[in-house]
Design a protein that fits this description.
This protein is α/β, with parallel strands linked by helices. It is built from ten helices and eight strands. The protein has two domains: 33 residues, no CATH class; 237 residues, no CATH class.
């Protein structure tokens, strides 16, 4: 017969080796968790509407996009946008939990999802894009030099207690080992964009954003570091750019917010004496 002590030890080891049941952040059920993303069960993981192969090259939408074929949109101030997921009913609830209800436990989950989107963007850019954002014709590796985020107004910051895009941007910058720079400020409060038409959104964005006073100098410092790295790695005597900025927001709808921010960031070009390219990465694409 197995002694009681040995039986107790076997039972204890069995409990240690048994997968720990946790409560899923999204559905609230207890079950087997996925290793791919923190905090959610396998069932919720399987239902994520990933955008793996964007149908629209410019905005990253997973289906055909009527917006990007409108006249004049080739003159946007950013190169392209990529998003991790399609903004469906489930993703809307996740964002509401994080953004409006202050459930900070969602932040690591959303950051990890955005890291996947960035990995796809990095791979795509190194295969297809040259330094002008056109189809690749040079052997220079594609990389971003700084990460920044869309700012919120003082009213929104007081209402929510945090800037959701800034938290995502800082987390992603840490993961990809690129400096985060707070570049932009919102100079005018606007009403929530989700209930507005496309034309109203475009009009609303006029003059909303500006550059923080120290922002351009911080980019110049990062540019000098990039020059040193270029000299050490490639023997080049001068870093001629382009200087690439990754602009982060939670959701891309019409692109009006991203474009307004990109216009401000592009004004750093005279100071830096090189082209500045803006790439957008958002958690969701509506």
């Amino acid at each position: 017969m197995i002694s009681n002590a040995f039986s107790h030890l076997i039972g204890h080891m069995h409990r240690l080796l048994k997968p720990i049941d946790e409560t899923c952040l999204a559905c609230g059920k207890t079950g087997s968790f996925t290793r791919e993303l923190p905090g959610i069960c396998r069932a919720c993981y399987r239902n994520i509407p990933w955008i793996m192969k964007p149908k629209c090259w410019r905005c990253g939408r997973g289906i055909g996009c009527p917006d990007c074929i409108r006249p004049g949109l080739n003159h946007r101030s950013f190169i392209l946008n990529r998003s991790a997921v399609t903004y469906d009913t489930q993703m809307r609830e996740w964002l509401a939990q994080y953004k409006y209800r202050g459930n900070e436990r969602y932040a690591p989950l959303l950051i990890e999802m955005m890291l996947r989107a960035y990995t796809l963007l990095h791979r795509e850019a190194n295969i297809h894009l040259d330094y002008k954002g056109s189809r690749k014709s040079s052997n220079m590796p594609w990389s971003v030099h700084a990460v920044t985020s869309v700012p919120v107004s003082g009213e929104r910051l007081q209402e929510r207690g945090f800037n959701q895009a800034e938290v995502l941007a800082q987390g992603l910058a840490l993961r990809i080992k690129v400096p985060y720079v707070q570049m932009l400020e919102r100079r005018r409060h606007t009403d929530k964009q989700s209930f507005k038409s496309r034309m109203d959104r475009l009009k609303d964005m006029e003059g909303v954003f500006g550059a923080l006073q120290d922002g351009p100098d911080m980019l110049l410092s990062i540019s000098n570091q990039a020059a040193e790295q270029t000299r050490s790695q490639m023997g080049a005597s001068l870093f001629k750019g382009p200087f690439r900025i990754l602009l982060i927001d939670d959701i891309y709808t019409t692109g009006s917010t991203i474009n307004a921010c990109a216009q401000v960031l592009r004004r750093c070009e005279p100071l830096m004496e090189m082209p500045v390219e803006i790439y957008s990465l958002t958690w969701a694409r509506s």
